[in-house]
Give the backbone structure.
Amino acid sequence: MRFLTAGETHGPQLTTIIEGLPSNLPIAAEAINEQLARRQKGHGRGRRMQIEKDTVQIVGGVRHGKTTGAPVALVVSNNDWKNWTQIMGADPVPDDSEAKRRVNRPRPGHADLNGGLKYNQRDMRNILERSSARETTARVAVGAVARELLAQFGIRTVSHVIRIGDIEVNRMDVSVDELREITEESPVRVADKEAEAKMIEAIDAAKADGDTLGGIVEVIIEGLPVGLGSHVQWDRKLDGRIAQAVVSIQAFKGVEFGIGFEAAKLRGSKVHDEIVYSQDGGFKRASNRAGGFEGGMTSGMPLVVRGVMKPISTLYKPLQSVDIDTKEVFTAQVERSDTCAVPAAGVIMENVIAWEVANAFMEKFGGDSLEEIRANYENYLEQIEQY
Ligand code: EPS
């Protein structure tokens, strides 16, 4: 399967085409809207989120609630577009027009300067409009569709924030289902109430200082069969693909699986998961330090992936930059932005990973209709059972 997105943060809409989905997959706009709404929440978001109420329009590939096998086309409109029609319109405007809201002081940490140089754009608005994390709206819509496919096979995902700035959660002894319920109600998507209060305080303090905060989010996926991805070729390793997807989320700087970077400190005997077998449960691991992967393939244990997001680089108290016209030192341009988008980033990460897993699922069990995939899947489970 594949997809592409198009659209600018203050343009008319975000557009996506997904190709390769099977037919007969139930898709409801409400299920996509639910994911879009989750992405918009979180303490620390700016005024833009009060303007937008993201809802999807399904404009291809779905009829009477089910996919037909044709490309699925999705559109999410930007409510803010009405304030930007001149600034972001496709029609030409005079070179010196105020309507351009030209950006000539690149913001450190953003795509502005690299993109301006690379694409030979002297108005860096042409870069920032597309590099903006608004684009993740489209990727969440794609992930929401992927989740529908995974849900057909009992595969479920959850995410939670484990760090914002220097505040880390205490691990709670809760099931994944409980975690899902609690984090959905939390303004920073954590289960630990004490950490929640401190995180909110830290975000408010950063905002008061014109500063921003990053953090770490964790995604857990349960119900996976063994053997998604493959060891045989570098670009078929599913953990590698997930790493790429996670680090491609705007402002993400790193990814780890299971105990992740901790493994560097420990001896092998404290890192690897012992293999156990039972008549009714089949092969399992006694622990899950590997985070659900061995050899680039799923082990059947839950996937545990963490991603680190740097603090958003648009600062109300901007850092030093250089004016590209005069080459003089200036502070970077101020654009409206969020103080902390880590809670939203967890939802984004869940959805981009859901896409990668669904893609690997289709490679393994792929068929043109949901029924064909189900038959392949069940056949494989039987093979595993008899192994
Ligand atoms: C963003 C800047 C802000 C965020 C935006 C990402 O938008 P604006 O410049 O319009 O205030 O709100 O995020 C979204 C719009 C979104 O939907 O997540 C940026 O520069 O990346």
